[in-house]
Write a structure and sequence with these properties.
OB fold (Dihydrolipoamide Acetyltransferase, E2P), three-stranded mixed sheet, 3 helices
Length: 161
Amino acid sequence: MKKLVFIPMVCIGLVLAACAAGTAPGAGEIIVNQSGGAGALVRECGDREYVARTSDYIIEGLVEKVESKWNQDKTQIFTYTDLSIEKYVKGAPFQQKKLKIVTPGGTVGEISQWVEDQPIFHQGKHVRVYFTEANGGFTIVCAQFGVEDLDSPSSAAKPGT
């Protein structure tokens, strides 16, 4: 039987602080962290035009690998998603053709940790990710609202396409 660990929204700031900072374009691996905090902007984040306008980058790509791991202290689980960039909808292209997206939560062995409002990625899916650059790092705009499944029939006519 799996254990489920729940982290309230107030802890997201602490979780995000533990995530690795993003790197500048052309400076090695590009890491995009989950923004959290979508609950504060539910009305705005539900508006696709707002999400697109707020984003510095909108990319489309293929989820190549999804892996959850414990942090060094074994107090948090993070999911690491490798995304192969196929198209830039907005923003200047990076030298690298891949992104690593880090989101809090996931399953390691028999233990699952769930964090509210996180996007969930599935290997083999095509997605569109809306993210912004701030303080030398990258974060997804509006938590789960900043990721779209392009393989879904309902994603046919989204903003930014």
